Each structure stands twice: as C-alpha cells, then as structure tokens.
Amino acid sequence: MNSISGNEVIFRGFNIASMAPNSASIRCELSDTPLCDSTDNLNYGMLHGTAIGVSGGKIKWFALEQELDRNELTFAQTVNGEGKLLTPGLIDCHSHLVFGGNRTAEWEQRLNGYSYEEIAKQGGGILSTVSATRAASEEELFQTAAERIKFLLSEGVTTVEIKSGYGLNLDSELKMLRVANRLGLEFPVSVEATLLAAHAVAPEFKGNPDAFIQHVCDTIIPQSAGLCSSVDAFCETIAFDLTQTKRVFECAQQQGLNIKVHAEQLSHTGAAALAANMGAISADHLEYLSADDCATLSRQGTVATLLPGAFYCLNEKQKPPIAALRDNQVSIAIATDSNPGSSPVLSLLLMGNMACNLFGLTPSEAIAGMTINAAKALKLDQSIGSIEKNKQADFATWNVNSPAEIVYGIGGNPSAGVYKLGKRTQF
User: Dihedral, CA atoms, 351, 353, 356, 359, nearest 10 degrees?
Assistant: First the structure.
C-alpha cells in the first residue's frame, strides 16, 4: 500500500479542514488508520496530526506525522503550518469580472432618490456597461479585470468562473471570453469562462428579443464554443422568458457545453426547474425558488448557487428557501456575483459571512459553498473543492484556530498563504 517515495512535497503541522464528502475514508498511507476526527460533527472533515504528500500538482497520500517521524522519512520539501488551518482553495463559481467602465454614478443617483427607470432613460443600467465594454480595448479590459481578480486571489481563491454578457454582440462577447481565459494564463488561478450572451437584449435588437435570441443561437454560441465551458442565460421578467431560455440551452447542448441559469431572482419564472430538467450544473440567485423547485434541483443534481451580494446591494427582502434546500439535500454554493451593477463585490469571504448572517447558513455550509459545492457548480468536483487523494493540491492556509473564523470576521483577511497545484502563489 505504501506509495511514499520521498520525492513529494509534504504539508505538515496544519489543522486540516478537508471538506471531503466522505472524509471518513481518508486513511494513513503507512498504517491504513482512519484519519478523520471522529468528534467533528460540524462536517468540516477535520484531520489533525496529518501530513499531505503532494507530487505533480496533486495530492498523493495522507499519513500520520508521528508515523512519518517514526520511520525517519525525509522529503524533497516540507511546508510546516505551525498550527495554521489548511482548507481547499476557495472557488468563486459565479462572477462577472470582465467589463468596461463602472456605475458608481448610478448608485449615487439611486441614493439621491432617482428611480431605476429614470436612470435607464438617461442611458444607465446594463446598457451603459455594454457601451463601455464595447468601447474598451481587449488590453484595457484585461488590465481592469486583473486588478479585480487580485482581491479574490488574496483571500484564498484558486478557481473562478467568469461570465461574459456585457458585449451582446459577437465581437465583444468573444473579446470578453478571451480576456477571461488570459486571466487564467497570467495569474495562479484556474478560470472557467461562461458565455452569457443572453444577459439582456442587445441595443440593435431593441423591442425584438426573439430575433436577438436567434442571433445568439445561430452565431454567438457556435463561434464562442472554443472559448467557454458553459452557457448561461438570465430568465426573468426584465430579461428572457422560458421559451427563449430553452432555445439558448438547446443550442448550447448541441455545442457540447454545460448550461447554467440566472433564475428566480426577482420573481418566480420556473427557470430553475426548466434548467435542472435539462441537466443544468447550477441555478443561481434563487430568492423566489419554490419547494417543488428544490425537489427538482435535488432530483437532477443541480447546484443552488446563492449570491448574497446582489441580495444585499439591491436591498431585497425575499430570501432563498434555505430550509427547503436543506430538506431536499440540494448542494448549496456561494459566490460573489461580482459585477458593476447589482453586486460590486470583490470579497468571497464577505459573501460567506453574509450567507450566514443574512440567509442563515451555518459556517460549515458556507465554507462548503465556497469549496466542494462550488466545484460541483462548475462540474469540477472530481478534481478540486476538497482535500482528497488524487485531487489537485489547491490549498488555502489561514491564521485562525477554527474553520468558522474564516467567515466570522468582517473586513479582515485571515489568509496566511495560497498554494496552486502545490506551489505557493505570487501575483
């Protein structure tokens, strides 16, 4: 059984929150002893006195530190945690980091009494971001997005999903997707790019959403397929209806792409159930999700991604049905929804805190929502999201005594270091 070679980098001296769904199966490579803390009833998958062997960017084995010492084993490199906490690298599974301009002035107008409709008539709202994004060069979009992504990386994020959706024409949507992919090449982070051309009706198609959806299906999705892994759509009274959304999903699936949906944010449309029944990997927002919808998500294995930043910034009152999601054992993810309009958020840790304080999640649910369940929302849970054998060695380390402290504080950053594929990140 022993596959320890001595060529591994070992991580030792950490308290480890593995977030592994089956942490009880994690065993010592030398003695086959179960390693999970049997007194951990909060579902963190805690491992104490355990070393992790990493080689080739992946987790190769676990072993009791005292057994390594007893056998006088030496290794290529040792990372000593000195009692710090180690978790999987965090995952932001819903963001809109690439865009031009900003909408600070509109936010200020709203606080001074202007309505959304009045601002929109002045050229504000999403179309103002579309105009700025179209006008920005690819390099300009990259530089501004690079500054945003640094905040996420500083808080332990090792994977991020980035949506397009502020171009609404072929050239600008492709431009956004290229920038998203470039961020993953130039920073120590994995990027999952998602096409969100069906975000709003393009100005060229004003008053004719069916024609725009036809353009999305005939032109934008086929020509974007090589730059993205998923296609998203915004199904809402202010965006697209069920029939239009279904057309987008059918086209995406013909291209071999995953589907995701912005659903049930401002009203109940049935979009979450539609998407789940079509095999969506996640349904996002979900304030108006019904109990029947929760059962559908559970049956189809679709992740419920909650976005407390948008809930907070829009001053919403309707909360997602947490009890029904729990009762139906739906996997719950948490993300920033970072965007210039409804969620100008660059802190996933703050979203974890808000998920607890505003929605009533437990700290372990919130951390699972930023690790293993966020990985499920991207269909990446076989390779990231928990600390298990043969998964990527994407780790976040923390200056805290317990996992709950990661999402307890507001405004601080307890990160002690981040490792991507087993290597300490620098950016």
Answer: -40
